[in-house]
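Open question from group meeting: does this chain pack into something compact, or does most of it stay loose? Before anyone orders reagents, we agreed to write out a predicted structure and look at it together. Recording both the input and the output here so the notebook holds the full record.
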Amino acid sequence: MGEVIRFVSKSERERERLIREARAIYDSIFPPADPASEQSGGATARRGDGGNLA
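Structure tokens returned:
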């Protein structure tokens, strides 16, 4: 009864699809660091890529 339906334009769906695809490619090149092993490493080198694509 109280459902809200939000209109999403075709361009917005395409934008979201392209972002998902870019993130998948990025993660295949730069795999996400395992937080447990990163914390236990102490003074290990950290990635300088600035984080996620947002």
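Observations to bring back to the group:
The first helix runs from residue 10 to 29.
The chain has two helices and no strands.
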